[in-house]
Amino acid sequence: xTSWTRSSFCSGADxxxxxxxxxxxxxxxxxNPQQPPLRFSVEEWRQFIxxxxxxxxxxxxxxxLSAVDGRLHEVLTLIAxxxxxxxxxxxxxxxxxxxxxxxxxxxxxxxxxTRAAAVQRGWELGLLGHTTPTGTGRSA
Length: 140
Description:
Layout: E1 5-6, E2 16-21, E3 24-29, E4 38-40, H1 42-51, H2 59-67, H3 71-80, H4 85-92, H5 96-110, H6 115-124
Antiparallel strand pairs: 1-2, 2-3, 3-4
Helix pairs in contact: 3-5, 3-6, 4-5, 5-6
């Protein structure tokens, strides 16, 4: 299953969504997700990001992005919201041990030592473009 992430420049329903795959990057209009997405090779994507003023991700980063989809992307998003392993487990209907396994895999794939570093890397790579960096997901 492909995991789509909304652009951080999204305003309302007018959004572009991106998905990172082992072979490259897909881009689609969120208003028409049934339409075939645009497909970019890793090199084409790097050139596109450079042309629009972003930092091009190195090839290795694109590979990491494709490895963080599905469940690992969900876990990263919930970590970014500030949820504990137990809270992530409750949200995703997983045991805490399973969440810990997902977190270990996530840290390894992003090549970072901590949950905070995973969130930072997620922001740098555009994996968390549709969440807010200051939101915690915890109610007051």
